[in-house]
């Protein structure tokens, strides 16, 4: 079986935080920290960049609003020009509710599908689920997993790094068949 990652267990959130800083400083890029609750500042300790999701939501939301406005303009001015109560063909104040609603719809759909796409979900089985101790990450344990497809990955050196930063237990996780 192929190796998926090296998994290290830590006793406290402070230990996890310090270990994340050391793994980041060691130059690893394909790794993650697992905790039963949010640890303040952990994303900074991991060296994570800000998410691109807000920009995706903004662009798709504005695109939805522009599409709604353009469609209404085309329908009322070109496709079916009707003079109703003496209003001009381009009566933009009447377009505001539909424009707003399509902007909100576009932003909401972008949030859901953008989050799923950026998180690479759905993934129905993850190799870490096969690790003996990993089930405790949602209860009372803290873990760092360094994936084997990281450019700096070497099973022995990575294991030594996790042990050196204070991991109480380190194990090699195999890829599921």
Report what the structure shows.
This protein is an alpha+beta fold and 177 residues long. It is 44% helix and 14% strand. The chain is built from five helices and four strands. It has a four-stranded antiparallel beta sheet with strand order 2-3-1-4. Helix 3 packs antiparallel against helix 4. It is elongated. The N and C termini lie close together (7 Å). The mean pLDDT is 94.
In short:
The protein has 177 residues and is α+β, with helices and mostly antiparallel strands.
Taking the alpha carbons of the first and last residues, their distance comes to 7 Å
Rg calc:
25 Å
How many strands in all?
Answer: 4
Mean pLDDT, as a whole number? 94
Helical coverage, percent range: 40-55%
* Unreliable stretches: none
Query: Helix/strand/pairing class, anyone?
Result: alpha+beta
Give the strand order, joined by hyphens, for the main sheet: 2-3-1-4
Query: In sequence order, what are the helices and strands, one letter per element?
Result: EHEHHHEHE
Query: Globular, elongated, flat, extended or rod-shaped: what is the shape?
Result: elongated
**Tally of separate helices:** 5
Strand proportion, as a percent range, falls in 5-15%
Largest sheet: 4 strands, antiparallel
């Amino acid at each position: 079986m192929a190796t998926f990652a090296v998994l290290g267990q830590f006793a406290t959130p402070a230990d996890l935080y310090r270990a994340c800083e050391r793994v980041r400083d060691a130059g690893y890029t394909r790794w993650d920290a697992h905790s039963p609750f949010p640890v303040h500042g952990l994303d900074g300790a991991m060296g994570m960049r800000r998410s691109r999701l807000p920009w995706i939501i903004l662009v798709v939301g504005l695109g939805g609003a522009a599409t709604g406005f353009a469609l209404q303009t085309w329908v009322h001015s070109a496709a079916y020009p009707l003079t109703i109560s003496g209003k001009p063909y381009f009566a933009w104040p009447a377009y505001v509710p539909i424009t707003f609603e399509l902007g909100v719809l576009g932003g909401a759909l972008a949030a859901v599908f953008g989050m799923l796409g950026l998180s690479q979900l759905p993934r129905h089985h993850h190799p870490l689920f096969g690790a003996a101790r990993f089930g405790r990450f949602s209860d009372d344990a803290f873990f760092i997993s360094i994936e084997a497809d990281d450019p700096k990955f070497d099973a022995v050196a990575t294991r030594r790094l996790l042990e050196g930063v204070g991991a109480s237990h380190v194990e090699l996780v195999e890829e599921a068949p």
